[in-house]
Hints:
Order of helices and strands: HHEEEEHEEHHHHHEEHEHEEHEEEEEEH
Number of strands: 17
Structural class: alpha+beta
Oligomer: single chain
Radius of gyration: 22 Å
Strand order of the largest sheet: 3-2-1-16-15-14-13-12
Amino acid sequence: MRNRLFALALALAPVVIPATAVAKPAAPVETLHIDKARIDAALKQMVDSGRAAGTSALIWQDGREVYFGTAGMADRNAKRPMRRDTIVQIFSMTKPVTGVALMQLWERGKFHLDDPLAKYLPEYASMRVYAGKNADGTPRYVPAERPILVRDILRHTAGFAYGAGPTPVHDAYVAADPLALTVPLSEASRRLAGVPLLFQPGTQWEYSMAVDVQAGLVEKLSGERFADYVRGHIFEPLKMTETAWRQPDARLPRFAAMNVMKDGKLVQQSDAEARMLNFQDHALTPGGFGLASTLDDYQRFAQMLLNKGELDGVRILKPSTVRLMATDQLDPSITERAWLPGKGAMGFGFDFAVRKAQPQTPQENRGAVGEFFWDGLPSTLFWVDPANRLTAVFFVQSIPFDGTLHRDFRAAVYGPDYKGPPGD
């Protein structure tokens, strides 16, 4: 089950306006009002339809809570309902936390975005790239045309694989098992560096193990264990007291069970399977997954981002750094973007998807241009919407990832026809 879960984030001068100039009226902007009854109904329908055993959501707007609600069970076997203090595994919603940690070190001048990764992690100095198969069917590899840059691991353009797949590179990744829980981040990185790249660095977008490499880079540059750095520089300053890779046993009764869809029905997993990431002493503290959190804790992380890097007088990042992370970093020439377009008119910043245009079809997820977000394997989700001064956190524990839950939740938050402000 463990392996399935793993297989299965500038002073302006005064301007004189000629008297003849006429200012253009501002484009009308839809006013967003949170409809609690509509969101309640959406959460309940997710449970009633069998897509989720339990759901919960927390929304803040204009600096105050505007919605909290739950539906269904955190643990159906124990008849324990979803609550505000329920702890869930957030999987890839770990990734933005790792990105914030690395960008703190960037602010301190520890690296440049366009430094070769091998400057700090020398195992990546001589990478090979998969170039198809020879006439005899054997894989063909060529040298990388340029180094992997730190920028590449922040935007998923390094060329790394991430689990099983159709190419010999994927086979090599599985054989190397870089995310084995028995190895530390340094060994995970060495194992990954021995796997050829799927494409030339910087030429495609492919979701990958890059954020775990980010975590290893945090350790190398800070001189601290990754989990210790994150706790001391992010969680403790933000008072995220219940977010961790390894949760204490006393919190076990508040954990939500994991549910896996089998033959059209959600099957609750055993405690050992569902909670093993948080209750065993593993050597690996991954940057790409593994955190468990509560709605209120992760909402504080989201609020910090909405507030341009600050919360309750504590600064985590500079405003310009948050803006950089939340700006599309993909060159127009990067047209191969795997499944990213399935999330809508999206670019990708540093560990966040970034909305670049209004929803184009009725089926597309609702949201506002300029929002940035990420989600997790068990269908968890959060986003930051600067246009509406809003943050939302949505929790559920349903595997495989079910995008219909996000579509329905967003439609309930924004309204089914919302388009928001126009893009550039």
